[in-house]
């Protein structure tokens, strides 16, 4: 696959790393306004960096847009005359609707929206996808890319904002929980490095157990909570202090915010 990432910033570079580590492209073009930060990527075989989006379009079949919402419109205006029927446009841009992209590049262009998270750099992103009508003919290409770099599901476009909160912002929420449990571990006497290792591996174990068993979290929690034991003591104290409620309220606040920053 001849892939271009238009806007190799935080997310764009995470996608690039995932593609490179998984050898998941034929050619890869990375664009950015300032090349200094991405020059090192040219050391990888078949990777090119440029400031020229038009060149990236001409050189590639799959165009992944990873720019800020306010930057996308200008870029689509810039490249639209160079788009052909071979191009598949994949936008990771938050809150930028398919209909707005269609109004700039036309309904006949294959358009897919993807909402990955930065774990795509290590092939572990949960990515939500949706597409325009004609894009259904190419959605399997997007699934192939994002399944190689984690897991993907197809959702209706009206759930993309919620998906952004749960998956894209969500990775930051989980990392904060890892940090908090690390701090708890330090207070119990582990050095910071060991405490983080214990916390990360336990988090990975919890997710893996649920993924592999298909069980509900409470069923697995019941196996851990010895009656009158230390686990239920800790869990109840956390709940008295609003753990679940705080997470749910945070998710709601994030969702409220994302609906205010939607640009179209
Ligand atoms: N950072 C994240 O974890 C996630 C971000 N997103 C969305 O992905 C998009 C990108 O986010 P980030 O990577 O965090 O932003 P960023 O600001 O780190 O990256 C955007 C990059 O685009 C470049 N750029 C701007 N105008 C350009 C142009 N005309 N041509 C080429 N490059 C240009 C900028 O120099 C910058 O490096 C946003 O819409 C964001 O909402 C979605 C999911 C997760
Ligand atoms: O925080 C944000 O607004 C963007 C969207 C999801 C991740 N980063």
UniProtKB/TrEMBL annotation:
Record domain Pyrroline-5-carboxylate reductase dimerisation: where: 157-258
Gene: proC
Residues involved in NADPH binding: 53
Main location: cytoplasm
Source taxon at top rank: Bacteria
Pfam families per the UniProt record, alphabetical: F420_oxidored (PF03807), P5CR_dimer (PF14748)
Cited SUPFAM superfamilies: 6-phosphogluconate dehydrogenase C-terminal domain-like (SSF48179), NAD(P)-binding Rossmann-fold domains (SSF51735)
EC assignment: 1.5.1.2
One GO term describing the cellular component: cytoplasm
Residues given in the record as NADP(+) binding sites: 6-11, 66-69
UniProtKB keywords: Amino-acid biosynthesis, Cytoplasm, NADP, Oxidoreductase, Proline biosynthesis
Functional pathway: Amino-acid biosynthesis; L-proline biosynthesis; L-proline from L-glutamate 5-semialdehyde: step 1/1
Species annotation: Salegentibacter echinorum
GO terms, molecular function: pyrroline-5-carboxylate reductase activity
Described purpose of this protein according to its UniProt entry: Catalyzes the reduction of 1-pyrroline-5-carboxylate (PCA) to L-proline.
Known catalytic reactions: L-proline + NAD(+) = (S)-1-pyrroline-5-carboxylate + NADH + 2 H(+); L-proline + NADP(+) = (S)-1-pyrroline-5-carboxylate + NADPH + 2 H(+)
GO biological process, one term: L-proline biosynthetic process
Protein known as: Pyrroline-5-carboxylate reductase
Domain Pyrroline-5-carboxylate reductase catalytic N-terminal: residue ranges: 2-94
Family of the protein in this entry: Belongs to the pyrroline-5-carboxylate reductase family.
Subcellular localization: Cytoplasm
Alphabetical list of InterPro entries matching this protein: 6-PGluconate_DH-like_C_sf, NAD(P)-bd_dom_sf, P5C_Rdtase_cat_N, P5CR_dimer, Pyrroline-COOH_reductase
């Amino acid at each position: 696959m001849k892939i271009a990432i238009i806007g190799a910033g935080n997310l764009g570079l995470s996608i690039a790393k995932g593609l490179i580590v998984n050898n998941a492209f034929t050619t890869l073009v990375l664009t950015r306004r300032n090349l200094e930060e991405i020059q090192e990527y040219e050391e990888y075989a078949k990777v090119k960096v440029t400031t020229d989006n038009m060149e990236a379009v001409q050189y590639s079949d799959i165009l992944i847009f990873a720019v800020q919402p306010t930057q996308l419109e200008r870029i689509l205006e810039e490249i639209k005359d160079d788009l052909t029927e071979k191009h598949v446009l994949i936008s990771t841009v938050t809150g930028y609707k398919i209909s707005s992209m269609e109004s700039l590049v036309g309904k006949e262009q294959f358009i897919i929206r993807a909402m990955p998270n930065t774990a795509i750099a290590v092939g572990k992103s949960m990515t939500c996808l949706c597409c325009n009508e004609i894009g259904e003919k190419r959605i399997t290409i997007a699934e192939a890319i994002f399944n190689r770099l984690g897991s993907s599901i197809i959702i209706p476009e009206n759930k993309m904002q919620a998906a952004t909160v749960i998956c894209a912002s969500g990775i930051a929420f989980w990392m904060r929980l890892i940090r908090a449990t690390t701090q708890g571990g330090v207070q119990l006497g582990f050095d910071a490095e060991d405490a983080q290792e214990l916390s990360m591996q336990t988090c990975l174990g919890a997710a893996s157990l649920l993924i592999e068993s298909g069980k509900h979290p409470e069923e697995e929690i019941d196996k851990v909570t010895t009656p009158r034991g230390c686990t239920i003591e800790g869990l109840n104290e956390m709940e008295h202090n609003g753990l679940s409620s705080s997470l749910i309220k945070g998710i709601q606040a994030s969702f409220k915010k994302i609906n205010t920053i939607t640009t179209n």
